[in-house]
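From the shared-data thread, chain only:
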Amino acid sequence: MAGDTIGRLLALRVTAADEQDRAQVSELAKRAQKETGETVEIACVDQGYTGENAANAAGAHGIKLEVVKLPTLKRRFVLRNRRWKNLIAM
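Structure, as tokens:
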């Protein structure tokens, strides 16, 4: 799923549970760029999208991935600054 900064849906891809999130980056980035007229520059994603392959797949469509990491010490509810904004909720 890809959404913009105010939560509007840009692209959606439904896959089997055994497929890796990062394997969907290229298709989601392509769809998001098509729907926005190639205006997405940065995608805030969770740690499921770490790695060079995901970054390269998004980069091929002009999108830089910004991985939002969880705090190292997680003992209570923590509000995450930016998550699933602009894209990939891939």
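The two ends are 5 Å apart (CA to CA).
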